């Protein structure tokens, strides 16, 4: 069974993506309108809440650009880097994450994705959001979304059920 089209989850990611800028960057952002149309085969409507700009220490961003996620993840965990909507899924995109395409830290609604993945970039966002929605890595079928390092986009019926269950739990404030 096909899950949401990868572009669908990219739309979710963009809808909640934080644009991280250095704390000492005084240049005002340019507001750009964005409209997203979602085709959903799994019955999960993804609604964009915001696209926000957050601040982070310049050294954390330099480290992130070098592929070291430690300072940014620590700041997100300890609250020194604030996200605009902690109740939402929050996506961040950086130039490089080292040798990984993306990461969704366990127990958070956060994900980071590199601008230069080794697979289709919209698929990386989909994969990381899959983790947030309770999905684990698939080890036997490279056509599946949760198989690492491939361009697979399929989900099994039980994965759709799990994602829907977790999504409802997030909406209801239980997760």
Defining key terms:
175 residues; alpha/beta; 3-stranded mixed sheet; two-stranded parallel ribbon; 31% helix; 13% strand
Write the layout of secondary structure elements.
Blueprint: H1 6-16, E1 18-22, E2 52-56, H2 58-65, H3 70-78, E3 90-94, E4 102-103, E5 110-114, H4 121-132, H5 157-171
Parallel strand pairs: 1-2, 3-5
Antiparallel strand pairs: 4-5
Helix pairs in contact: 1-4
Described by strand count, sense and barrel closure, the largest sheet is: 3 strands, mixed
CATH architecture: 3-Layer(aba) Sandwich
CATH topology: Collagenase (Catalytic Domain)
β-strand percent reads 5-15%
Distance between the termini: 26 Å
**Overall SS class:** alpha/beta
Q: How confident is the prediction overall: mean pLDDT?
A: 74
Order of helices and strands: HEEHHEEEHH
Q: How many helices in DSSP terms?
A: 5
Instruction: Name the overall outline.
Output: globular
Biggest sheet strand line-up: 3-5-4
CATH class membership: Alpha Beta
Spans where pLDDT lies below 50 across 5 or more residues: 1-26
Kindly state the percentage of residues in helix: 25-40%
Oligomer: single chain
What is the total number of structural domains? 1
What's the number of extended β-strand segments? 5
| Cα Rg | 16 Å
Question: Any overview of this molecule?
Answer:
The structure is a single chain. This protein is α/β, with parallel strands linked by helices and 175 residues long. The protein has a single domain, classed as Collagenase (Catalytic Domain), CATH 3.40.390. It contains five helices and five strands, in the order H-E-E-H-H-E-E-E-H-H. It has helices at residues 6-16, 58-65, 70-78, 121-132, 157-171, and strands at residues 18-22, 52-56, 90-94, 102-103, 110-114. The protein has a three-stranded mixed beta sheet with strand order 3-5-4. The protein has a two-stranded parallel ribbon with strand order 1-2. A hairpin with a 6-residue loop joins strand 4 (102-103) and strand 5. Helix 1 (6-16) crosses helix 4 (121-132). The longest helix is centred in the last third of the chain and has 15 residues, at 157-171. It is globular and about 45 Å long. Residues 1-26 have low confidence and may be disordered.
């Amino acid at each position: 069974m096909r899950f949401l089209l990868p572009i669908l989850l990219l739309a979710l990611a963009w809808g909640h993506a934080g644009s991280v800028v250095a704390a000492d960057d005084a240049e005002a952002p340019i507001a750009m309108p964005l409209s997203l149309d979602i085709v959903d085969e799994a019955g999960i409507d993804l609604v964009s809440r915001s696209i926000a700009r957050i601040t982070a220490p310049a050294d954390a961003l330099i480290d992130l650009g070098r592929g070291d996620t430690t300072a940014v993840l620590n700041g997100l965990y300890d609250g020194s880097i604030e996200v605009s909507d902690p109740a939402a899924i929050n996506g961040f995109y950086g130039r490089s994450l080292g040798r990984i395409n993306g990461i969704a830290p366990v127990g958070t609604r956060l994900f980071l994705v590199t601008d230069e993945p080794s697979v289709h970039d919209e698929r990386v966002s989909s994969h990381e959001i899959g983790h947030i929605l309770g999905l684990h890595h698939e080890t036997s079928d490279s056509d599946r979304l949760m198989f690492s390092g491939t361009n697979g986009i399929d989900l099994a019926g039980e994965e759709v059920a799990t994602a829907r269950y977790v999504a409802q739990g997030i909406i209801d404030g239980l997760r």
